[in-house]
Amino acid sequence: MDNKKIMRAKRATQLIFLVCGLGISSWAPMVPLAKDRLALDEADLGLLLLLLGGGALFMMPVSGVLISKIGFRKVILGSVLAAASILPFLLVISDIYLMGLALFAFGCSIGTVDVAMNAHGIQVQNIYGKPIMSSLHGLFSVGGLLGALGLGFLMKLGLNPMYAAVTISVLLVFLMSIQFSYLFNHQSEKEIIHQFSKVDEEKAVTSRFQWINSTVLLLGMMCFIVFLSEGAMLDWSAVFLRDDKGVEPEFAGTGYAAFSVAMAVMRLMGDSLISKLNSKIVVIAGSLIASAGILILIFSPWMALTLFGFILLGMGAANIVPVFFSEGGKISGLSPTVSIPVITTMGYAGQLAGPALLGFIAHHFSLTVAFESIALLFIMVAFIYKFRKNSSSC
Question: Which residues make Cβ contacts (< 8 Å) with residue 85, sequence separation at least 6?
Answer without folding.
Answer: 169
